[in-house]
Amino acid sequence: MQCPESLRVQGYFDAELDALSAADIERHMESCADCRALYQELQQLRTAMREELPPVHAPPELRARIARALDQESLGHGAAETAPPWPPRRSRNWRTGSFWMGAISGLGTAAVAAALGFVLLTPLRTAPLVDELLNAHVDSLLSTHLVDVVSTDRHTVKPWFAGQTDVSPVVADFEPQGYKLVGGRVDYLEHQRAAVVVYRHGAHVINVFSWSATPRSIAGKVTRNGYHLMFWRIGDLQYCAVSDTGWDELASLTQLLQGLQ
Amino acid sequence: MDDRRRRFEAQVLPHLDAAYRFARWLARSPDDAQDLVQEAMLRAYRGFDALRGSDVKAWLFTIVRNCHWTALKQQRRRAQVPLPEEHDTLDAQALISPALGPHEESIRRDEALTLQRLIERLPEEYREVLILRELEDMDYRSIAAVTQVPLGTVMSRLARARLALKKHWLGQLEAESRAVP
User: Fold this and answer.
1) Taking CB atoms and an 8 Å limit, are B41 and A69 in contact across chains?
2) Closest-CA residue in chain A for B167?
3) Do A43 and A13 touch, CB atoms closer than 8 A?
4) Interface pTM (ipTM) of the complex?
5) Is B133 on the interface with A (CB under 8 A)?
6) Are A212 and A223 in contact (CB under 8 A)?
């Protein structure tokens, strides 16, 4: 069994963490032998790959071939083809979510949805949404931005949302049932400020996103990259719980949350 | 030489070595890699006006990779095999097939496996993130852009690729050091 922090140790090793998270992981590694070993193995592997693999250079004849091809191109065709700008300029520019959306936009949406195993009512609009949710979830795990307001008290978290977002989601602590309320956060989702309620279940983080529902509600389950996403709707609020826990654990929390309504 | 060509040679051609190195991991032979890079450079030149300042290397690599997949589709030499996707339970052992590849028939299983051969045996989508990270020193967002998958997928593939290599390669090293009296 791997330490749940192993992805962040990898992120630290790859210099992808911000300073606060990096300090956090350094502290963690002091007390976690597994993660110290992992870090050492990552270093060994990198050293080996960078030092033992034979260096590869483009052969001179390739340079010559390319120069000839470019000469021909300049002479023959003159005008350049019009290509779409790269990277694609969309709402989040160089962010991967939009890049992915761009990458699949040319394909049949139904086919994409089928290939990704969606069991949702509205695959047409959920494909980018799932990416948005997943990226938001992963970002929250990698950065120190897991919570904006730290509190195990729902009476603190719920009013805090009122000043930060347009929605007022269900907030409750279920520590006796194993779902400890950690705090709240605001993420941009579906072009609005979504409220995120953060729970801890054992070593796992569960992000419960909520935002103003559109006329077409989303319900159902999706698994992507090992993460589970469970969608439901209450009134005019759309919810989605995201985690790498098992389905049963996620379902228990969503039932607790739905039972409060 | 016109201005556009000069700008292309100044901005893109310095990445030729890296592009060829990447292509060698994608293509099956040095000749195929040369064809691939030539085609990619030509396309890059045609689409050069679409490049807006940003990461030239990642842009070029995206084109190399797209050319590679286009060529593969056209050739249809390989039977379609479903790629293993990420699962909840990580089975790093299963990532590297114990069976020897077609080029390795003469190599007996008890011979030392080099790091290179282990990497070659990784499934392509795991190998490419590993190569881009370790050999080309790209950050996660550039890798996500080149391979056209979300950031989370880059991280999980990278973790799985490293785990699989660790098990096989470090295991190999330990076995060797034990064998030395």
Assistant:
1) yes
2) A41
3) yes
4) 0.76
5) yes
6) no
